[in-house]
Amino acid sequence: MKKYPSKISYGLLLFVLAVPIGTIFPLISSQRWFAIGVNLCIVTFILILFFNLFYAIDEEWLYIKLGLVLIKKIDIQSIIMMSETRSLISAPAVSLDRLEIIYSKHKSIIISPRDKSGFIDHITLINPNITVQYKAT
């Protein structure tokens, strides 16, 4: 099984962390220790989400995992198309440099593998019938 870690957009990470980190400083000055602890837990949770997301491929399945938690399991033979996208739709992707995978007629998911070309090559090696659409640069 080959793992492809998610690409991380540090701008997106900073955007998501802005509020919990920004509110820590006023809480420190007012010595609200419980609220500081809650904010630090939120920051830790966000960092875990960003740095433990990956995609794994074996002979017939694509697994989308967050640490040890399986988010989605997709039969590679059911994949119809992959296309590059910069969609802002909520997805198991921590970058805006994304791939939309359309599978099983009307289902889709958006992911963001760090090695996008290696990921595409690996999937299309298993299922050469997949249509791949690249964005015009």
UniProtKB/TrEMBL annotation:
InterPro entries per record: PH_YyaB-like
Keyword terms of this UniProt record: Membrane, Transmembrane, Transmembrane helix
Chain ranges of the Uncharacterized protein YyaB-like PH domain: 54-124
Name of the featured protein: PH domain-containing protein
GO biological process: bacteriocin immunity
Key word Disulfide bond present: no
Pfam families: bPH_4
Transmembrane segments: 12-28, 34-57
Keyword Membrane attached: yes
